[in-house]
Specification:
By secondary structure, the protein is mostly helical. Helices cover 56% and strands 0% of the residues. The protein has one domain. It holds the Pfam family DUF4260.
Length: 124
């Protein structure tokens, strides 16, 4: 009889001090991005937990949880949003500043997580 997937706290991977400093720098740059694009600072906190919805993958099992969490906590997606905002801005398109807002909040979330020592999850 199989016990099934183990449930419990997601496994953690230690984050080196250099990556913590990098996370703090990214979080600081996200604040600057947010202010330069004309948004209020409180958006960073209003949307902060939104990106932790990626932890819902752990309801399936640890492997799925780690994959979904890691996808939600990589800098690739916010960079894509920021590039989209930059392209729209270069083309003088209006109404795309929400991309910068979400990118800044996402960068801030990942940066704060890394600065606090939360890193990518192992896939076991």
């Amino acid at each position: 009889m199989s016990a099934g997937p183990a449930r419990g706290a997601p496994p953690a991977t230690p984050v080196p001090i250099l990556h913590r400093a990098e996370g703090a720098a990214v979080a600081g740059a996200a604040v600057v991005l947010l202010v330069l694009t004309g948004f209020a600072w409180w958006w960073l906190f209003a949307l902060f937990l939104l990106f932790d919805l990626s932890m819902l993958g752990y309801a399936v099992d640890h492997r799925v949880g780690a994959i979904v969490y890691n996808l939600g906590h990589t800098y690739v997606a916010p960079f894509v949003l920021l590039a989209g905002y930059g392209l729209a801005h270069a083309l003088d398109a209006t109404g795309w500043s929400v991309l910068a807002l979400v990118a800044a909040c996402w960068f801030f979330h990942i940066g704060v997580d890394r600065a606090l020592g939360f890193g990518p999850r192992p896939l076991h």
